[in-house]
Specification:
CATH class of the largest domain: Alpha Beta
Strand content: 15-25%
Largest sheet: 7 strands, mixed
Number of strands: 27
CATH topology of the largest domain: Aldehyde Dehydrogenase, Chain A, domain 1
Length: about 550
């Protein structure tokens, strides 16, 4: 790839639609702590886009902004603010009625919607997500918040009754756990972060929130909305190096819940830093190497379509992406030929360009890492089967279909998290089944076939290895009402609209023997609305 070819791939400002153009770098010099948006005059971390620019015939990532590199002192201030707001469960937020907390979250949602265009634009520039996918991420997040509110109303309605059992009168509700540390991933920096942050907040916990390593600037438009929508100290932001600002938080022992989406390696480090890990509730979304198994009686057209989407949506940078495809030997040639054609039709370019499916990669040196995986496989007998597969244009890599991938190759076991599709062949279903069984990961798998008996024979053991088996469709998270979790090194805790409300709370009850005196006391508390917990109010 010549320098001229690389230069022409990335557009000059004049060719970028004005609506999506960044006029100047975004100076993010504020953070939210204890209800105050504070100025930061210390060191800043520069933010570079995967969308490059050409200066003096040299292609380089475009500088698009900066954010604060806070110190442990600011992190500890955020922690103390969150602890004060929670106040051992006595604070205004954890003792607030469910209906009141819902009103705060609704107010925030309205403010958030005002920032849609700005956040969508920053998603494109910071992580290279296409315009349709950026819009979908924002809109899906709004829908998730609304669905969470509806689910909480239903949960509260079910809890608004008393239970009498063996002479004991009780009311069972869910109570918050304390201070939650929320850390989301770069690939879905808004949506995945909010799938933990919103349920943690709405259930009465206080939150310290650290944006992911990539996708930081897009939260700048939301700081004021957070400040105006929630009581002071209920939500606090920290920016900077993880070891500097997160280590002290975990080592303090004052974090009650760790909500983290990232790698199992980092999750292990964070958990081990806590002085009393048995008291730490963890909600973790971690690594995955989801496999597709294409049986010899599969509908090849459908399997190709679903596998192409499943393996290369957002460049394969999804935990739910299909990261290896097993194809029956009898249909391998037909499948690979059709699949390679489908991949070749995926258009590459800038995120805002119509029809673009493959975009530049945001992680520094990612193309070098991916090229190394391809070279390792090719040295051990595999080859790239699609035209221009693996071609690199600075931060951009054309999707590579690599075949045949076998044990001993890094692509067989490593989670590539990029636009490489490893394909392996099998003659006996025991081969891909053993792969899933022996894998360190256990999130999802996709089965493609038409024989009900064979599919049933495979899915029965697979549901004990992974947490979702997809029949004739790609792996995916949605709908958000379905449980989303994993086995082995892939997850801890379950997320969905309803599950998330439970995972950030604990069942708590008020009980009394059914004596006349106790009945009168409880009736008085309920009728005179003396308690927010002990209540029969019905939220409409």
């Amino acid at each position: 790839m010549t320098n001229r070819e690389q230069t022409s791939f990335f557009p000059d400002d004049g060719l970028i639609p004005e609506k999506y153009r960044l006029i100047s770098p975004i100076e993010q010099r504020h953070y939210l702590c204890d209800g105050v948006i504070k100025d930061w005059c210390g060191p800043q971390q520069k933010v570079f886009s995967p969308i490059c620019e050409t200066v003096d015939q040299i292609v380089r990532p475009r500088h698009i902004g900066c954010f604060p590199l806070l110190t442990s002192e600011q992190a500890e201030e955020a922690l103390e603010a969150a602890c004060r707001a929670y106040d051992h469960g006595r604070g205004a937020w954890p003792t607030m009625s469910v209906e009141e907390r819902i009103r705060h979250v609704e107010a925030f949602t309205l403010r958030m919607q005002e920032a849609r265009d700005e956040i969508v634009k920053l998603l494109m520039w910071e992580i290279g997500k296409t315009l349709p996918d950026s819009e979908k991420e924002f809109d899906r997040t709004i829908d998730y918040i609304r669905d969470t509110i509806d689910s909480l109303k239903e949960l509260d309605r079910l809890s608004s009754r008393f239970v009498i059992e063996k002479g004991v009168l009780g009311q069972i509700r869910r109570a918050p756990l304390g201070v939650v540390l929320c850390m989301g991933p770069f690939n879905y920096p808004l949506n995945e972060t909010f799938t933990t942050l919103i349920p943690a907040l709405i259930m009465g916990n206080t939150v310290i929130f650290k944006p992911p390593k990539l996708g930081v600037l897009l939260f700048k438009p939301l700081l004021k909305a957070f400040q105006d929508s929630f009581p002071k100290g209920v939500i606090n932001t920290v920016y900077g190096d993880g070891q500097t600002v997160i280590g002290p938080l975990m080592k303090s022992g004052k974090i009650d819940v760790l909500a983290f989406i990232g790698t199992s390696r980092v999750a292990d480090i964070l958990k081990h830093q806590h002085p009393t890990p048995h008291r730490l509730r963890c909600v973790l979304g971690l690594d995955a190497k989801n496999a597709a198994i294409v049986l010899k009686d599969a509908d090849i057209e459908n399997a190709v379509k679903e596998c192409a989407l499943g393996s290369l949506s957002f460049n394969g940078q999804r935990c739910t992406a299909l990261k290896i495809i097993f194809v029956h030997r009898e249909i391998a040639d037909e499948f690979i030929g059709t699949f390679s054609e489908a991949v070749s039709m995926l258009e590459g370019g800038m995120p805002w360009e119509p029809g673009v499916r493959i975009t530049p990669l945001p992680e520094p040196d990612k193309t070098t890492y991916l090229t190394g995986l391809i070279e390792d496989a090719c040295q051990k007998g595999a080859r790239i089967v699609n035209p221009d597969g693996g071609t690199v244009k600075h931060t951009f890599m054309s999707p590579a279909v690599v075949y045949p991938v076998e044990p001993g190759m890094k692509l067989y076991t490593d989670e590539q998290f990029g636009p490489i599709v490893p394909i392996a062949v099998f003659s006996d279903t025991a081969e891909p089944m053993n792969y899933v069984t022996q894998s360190n990961y256990g999130q999802q798998v996709s089965l493609f076939g038409s024989n009900p008996g064979l599919l049933a024979e495979l899915l029965d053991p697979l549901v004990n290895q992974v947490c979702r088996v997809n029949i004739n469709s790609q792996c995916q998270r949605g709908p958000d009402t379905f449980p989303f979790t994993g086995r082995k090194d892939s997850a801890e805790g379950t997320l969905s609209v309803s599950d998330a409300l439970r995972v950030f709370t604990i069942r708590t009850l008020v009980a009394a023997k059914t004596t006349e005196a106790n009945k009168q006391i409880i009736n008085a508390i309920v009728k005179e609305r003396k308690s927010r917990f002990l209540s029969t109010d019905f939220i409409l």
